[in-house]
Amino acid sequence: MTRTQVVIVGAGPSGLLLGALLHKAGVDAIILERQSPDYVLGRIRAGVLEQVTVELLEQAGVGERMHREGLVHDGCALIVNGQLHRIDLHGLTGKRIMVYGQTELTRDLMEQRQRLGAPIVYQAEQVELHGFDGEHPHVTYRKDGQAHRIDCDFIAGCDGFHGVARASLPATALTTYEKVYPFGWLGVLSDTPPVTHEVTYSHHERGFAMCSMRSLKRSRYYIQVPIQDKADQWSDEAFWDELRRRLDPASAKALITGPSIEKSVAPLRSFVAEPMRFGRLFLAGDAAHIVPPTGAKGLNLAAADVAYLSQALIGWYGQDRRAVDDYSARCLRRIWRAERFSWWFTSLMHRFPETGEFGQKMQLAELDYLVQSQAASLAMAENYVGLPL
Ligand code: FAS
Ligand code: PHB
Description:
Layout: E1 2-3, E2 6-9, H1 13-24, E3 29-32, H2 37-42, E4 48-49, H3 51-59, H4 64-69, E5 71-73, E6 76-80, E7 83-87, H5 89-93, E8 97-99, H6 102-116, E9 120-121, E10 125-130, E11 138-143, E12 146-151, E13 154-157, E14 175-190, E15 200-203, E16 209-213, E17 219-226, H7 236-245, H8 249-254, E18 260-274, E19 277-278, E20 281-283, E21 289-290, H9 298-317, H10 327-349, H11 356-372, H12 374-384
Parallel strand pairs: 1-12, 2-3, 2-13, 3-9, 6-15, 13-20
Antiparallel strand pairs: 4-8, 5-8, 6-7, 10-11, 11-12, 14-17, 14-18, 15-16, 16-17, 18-21, 19-20
Helix pairs in contact: 1-6, 1-9, 9-10, 11-12
Bound molecules: arabino-flavin-adenine dinucleotide and P-hydroxybenzoic acid (PHB).
């Protein structure tokens, strides 16, 4: 039987960042991850980091490659009625965003943990949580056919939307809120130069489109597709043609296409589970909440949860036994603001045929106001760059 202070379930950004911050503070933790490292790194997800997230990664000791390879952006852009409008994020808020793929920061955290020799178990099967409603929880799992048990003080459920942590709770312990959007995002990764210098969101009568990047040589594009669409229904040519149709003329002309190196359809939902603490079990990141990726909040919310949870656990071990008591309330205040922004921006930028012609006119009127009004642009910008912790 093994003993540690904190068992972290999940080696996505939440679990790895929490492990790094706890290790730095001398709090022992073991991370249990269901998949292999390659599988975790193979999932192409977020691309935009808030300044708060950048600072947390620096604090965790993994800022060097991010600053070397990441792209710092002062603005983003909206395409409305075929016209590109820049939102001057830095001019409006004094803050910037960092474009650095989730895959890369996950790799940095994995490699750091390996260098530190800090414990992590990949391909841990049948992870089960026990006794977290008392003061002596433990976790069991199987690995290579062997049964294992870890006794601990706390369990951090960093295991994403489909994980075991939230599923371990009695239905009566949770209140959940959910909205599923009637479409998905078809995303393509390609080793082609980005068509726009900054992340660009397009509102178009054919549907939403978005131009992002991972570097000056690797682009990430998305188009809104019907919820039932599968990635293999879309040839690369069909994707590029549809993306081109949804961009402003100059970007459509400048678009450099190439073979997709990754192509996937992501469903869009808003989801929150309250509260985020149950005795000695804490939920963090996608295990507790999901946002539609339009506002680039998912990964950044996970990082903010981890900032609060690491402070709470470090406080507890520093004899401030009440440090863990306001974790859930602190997270949820920030989460609901990000849920609102992500829902608002998704509702504004996507095509909702069910809202009819009046609904589409309302979207265009709000977009016209957003790009013309400094007050409206500031309201969007301060949410996009991230609210203070
Ligand atoms: P994650 O889901 O990343 O990690 C959870 C980890 O727990 C996984 O590695 C999983 O294998 C592991 N796990 C699950 N069950 C387990 C078990 N029983 N035992 C052990 N381990 C277990 N956010 C953005 O900001 N922009 C985007 O463009 C964007 N695109 C996305 C696309 C998709 C398809 C998805 C699903 C999410 C996207 N997100 C995006 C959100 C995403 O980036 C998340 O916010 C981020 O991955 C959250 O990190 P974690 O909380 O660590 O959860
Ligand atoms: C991405 O680069 O994958 C990305 C950027 C901004 C978003 C969503 C995704 O809002």
